Amino acid sequence: MSIYRLALMELGYQLRAQLPKSFAALAEVEVVLFEHLATVRIPDRIVVPVELAQENPARNRASDLVLAVEVVSPGSGRTYRVLKFAEYAEAGIPN
């Protein structure tokens, strides 16, 4: 198993153990950042209110997220640290 996959698994375990019961961590789901630009991303993990997670929407709106997490791989560092970070911030994801 790759270091990337191991990191994703550990992240999932840590989030589950530490999140308040009112939040849920989800893996690799679509997030609409900007409706007018049709911009969709799939972060490695997101955190949303548990009520929203139970609704299981096909896509999540950026405004519903409290956290988006990307595990950076060696070949994608600039994209993750610059482009995606800026997009998530501009879309209003607070963390």
Automatic annotation (TrEMBL):
Organism: Saccharopolyspora spinosa
Pfam families noted in UniProt: Uma2
GO molecular function, one term: endonuclease activity
Classification lineage: Bacteria, Bacillati, Actinomycetota, Actinomycetes, Pseudonocardiales
Top-rank taxon: Bacteria
Domain Putative restriction endonuclease residues, every copy: 14-94
The entry's keywords: Endonuclease, Hydrolase, Nuclease
CDD domains: DUF820-like
Protein known as: Restriction endonuclease
SUPFAM superfamilies assigned to the protein according to its UniProt record, in alphabetical order: Restriction endonuclease-like
